[in-house]
Amino acid sequence: MTTFDKVYEAVKLIPRGSVATYGQVAEALGNKRLSRVVGYALHVNPRPGVIPCHRVVKRDGEVSSAFAFGGANRQAELLRSEGVAFRDGSHVDMAYCVRALPLMR
DNA sequence: AACCTGACTCGCC
DNA sequence: AGGCGAGCCAGGT
C-alpha cells in the first residue's frame, strides 16, 4: 500500500455531483501536506475512467489547468453534467467540496 | 544511490 | 496584499 494507492482510494470515494480539494484529500490520508503528492499521483493516474480525477480541484475551487486529461474545458463539462455548480468558467462552488469531505474520512 | 521535479498548500515576511 | 520557502512522496535521470 503506497501513498499513491491511498490517494486513488480517497478520490474514488468522491460521490458523483461533488468535488474535493487536493488539501482535503491529503488530510483524509492523514497529512495535509501531501496535497502536492496528491496532485502528482493524479498526474501519473494509471486509471482514468476508474479514478474520478476531474472531481479534484485546488483549494479555491479552481480546476487544474496544468494537465486536464482531454483539456481543462473537458473537466468543467464533466462536472457540470454531474450537477456541480460553477462560480464562473473555472471555479466550482466550494459547497460541493465540503459535501465530499466526510465520505473520505 | 543522490538529486531534481511536479495536477498543492500554508506560514512568514 | 503579494511573493517566497518549506514539507510531503514517487519516479526518472
The parts where pLDDT drops under 50 for at least 5 residues are none
CATH superfamily annotation: Winged helix-like DNA-binding domain superfamily/Winged helix DNA-binding domain
Strand numbers in spatial order across the main sheet: 1-2
Largest sheet, if any? Answer: 2 strands, parallel
Structural domain count: 1
Order of helices and strands: HEHHEHH
Tell the overall outline.
Answer: globular
How many individual β-strands? 2
CATH class: Mainly Alpha
- Number of H- or I-type helical stretches: 5
Q: Beta fraction of the residues?
A: under 5%
CATH topology: Arc Repressor Mutant, subunit A
User: What is the chains' assembly state?
Assistant: single chain
- Percent helix, as a range, is 40-55%
Under the CATH scheme, the architecture is Orthogonal Bundle
Could you tell me the radius of gyration in angstroms?
Answer: 12 Å
Please tell me about this protein's structure.
By secondary structure, the chain is mainly alpha-helical. It is 44% helix and 4% strand. The chain is built from five helices and two strands. The protein has a two-stranded parallel ribbon. The longest helix has 10 residues. It binds a DNA duplex (13 and 13 nucleotides) through helix 2, helix 3 and strand 2.
